[in-house]
Amino acid sequence: MYQVSIQDHFDAAHYLRDYGGRCENLHGHRFVVAVTLEAPGLNEIGLVYDFTALKGHVKEILSRFDHTCLNDMPSFQGRNPSSENIAATVYEELAARLVGAPAVLRQVQVWESPEAWATYIPEG
Ligand SMILES: [Zn+2]
To answer: What are the backbone angles phi and psi of residue 19, rounded to the nearest 5°?
Structure first.
């Protein structure tokens, strides 16, 4: 089994509804996002997936969130823009772009600070 990962980031504001603490107030983070693909083997030139292509997909997905208030985005109308839900949202959008690819999306991680991050791995 091989895994490849890339990371990118975006800057955005958010607030957590019903949190019951200071995270209910509007504030910002540099959200660092890492995605990991895996495959049982390599392609004919020795790759799981092209890093440049993967970075391009992630940059396109994250650019929609950059310098926004995440709570205003359609992706977060029904759920809080927590790091956990950001990871799940990025997962869903990236997985849709990788349908038919020779590698599968294993996990998405989102850091909201250097010391705190969430990982989304779909069950099953
Ligand atoms: Zn926050």
So the answer is: -75, -35
Tokens (6 digits) for 100: 């038919």
Average pLDDT value over all residues in the chain: 97
Return the domain boundaries, the chain.
Answer: 2-120
Residues 49, 46: Cα–Cα separation, whole Å: 9
Distance 44 CA to ligand 1 centre (A): 43
- Residue 27 Cα to ligand 1 midpoint, Å, equals 6
Specify the CATH class of 2-120 in words. alpha beta
* pTM exceeds 0.90: yes
Decide the pairing of beta strands 2-14 and 27-39. Answer: antiparallel
From the CA of 81, how far away is ligand 1's center (Å)? 9
The answer to whether 111 touches 29, Cβ cutoff 8 Å, is no
**How does pLDDT run across 68-101, given as a tens digit for each residue?**
999 999 999 989 999 999 999 999 999 999 999 9
What does the pLDDT read at residue 124? 76
List Cβ neighbours of 44 (8 Å cut-off, separation of 6 or more): none
